[in-house]
Design goal:
The protein is mainly beta. The chain has strands at residues 4-7, 22-29, 36-53, 55-57, 62-64, 69-79, 86-89, 95-99, 109-115, 122-125, 130-140, 147-151, 162-164, 186-189, 194-197, 200-210, 214-222, 229-230, 236-242, 245-248, 254-255, 265-266, 271-278, 288-293, 299-303. Strands 2-3-6-11-9 form a five-stranded antiparallel sheet, with no helix packed on it.
Length: 306
Amino acid sequence: MLSLGLVAILGAQIPAQIGKPYLIGTVGRTKGEKQVSELGNSRVVTIKSARTAIAFGTKKETIVAGEGKKLLILEANIRNPEKKPISVTESQTFGLRVYDTKFTATDVQYRGAAAKDLSLLSKTLRPGESIDIVTIYEFPAKTPHLRIGIFYHNYIRSQAPKMDLTSQLSPPTSVFAESAMNFVPTAQASLGARFDLDDLQFKVLGQRKIEQDGIAVRVEISNPMPRPGRWGWQYATAAMLSGATTVNSYPEFYIDPQFQTWGNEIRPGATVTGEYRFYPPAGFSAKQFRLQMNVTKRTVTVALGP
């Protein structure tokens, strides 16, 4: 059973470490006897690594952090310490508590889990058997620190291993990351440089003149996720900027001829190219191109020229 909550450590130490196994969960005892009754509610958990991102994909789904949020991805190992099989599924990994913050229960959410190969997590572990997994949580985009406790079945404050991941997060790769702890909603990218925008990756290739004194901005889009990604003009607002003047694109993303059968879907590992078309007023000289996601409001601006 997976559970999530937010509590204060109240001055307690947080000695647990990444890479070290911890026995969590509960066992049964008969009152007055030393005999332990295994209930299938214990497991040995090792947190192997932690990192942040704005999107993460499994073979089941692509998870995108909501507006004002980031994802925390934990890679872990779960081993069965009991004498009978235990289940490890998307809802049976381990619980998480977040310490020493002012977050509410709606600020932090569990978003899912998968096997290490990103396949559906549904495994019965025999005694002594283990499995590598990944779990995904959603946190506020800016977080003062990352102090967590792990447990299974029942949270017992005195028993939950507590660790501070603040300085142990892997370096982020997103253009929206000021640091591993803090993400921002707006970012800059260079012409010809690849950047992430929610679940897809983009590269602005340049601009060209088109009919009726129009301008087309060419864009390359790639899908790094295990599942197909959707794209079209309706997912983001494309604009060109020149000083205080903003011109929005014609409501269409013009895919290049060789990709005409794409059906607004980019397959895993695939790349497509196309363009946004603009019809600015006379004398307009485009300085920047901007894409803003309609749902998450993340925005990337690319300089087109001096």
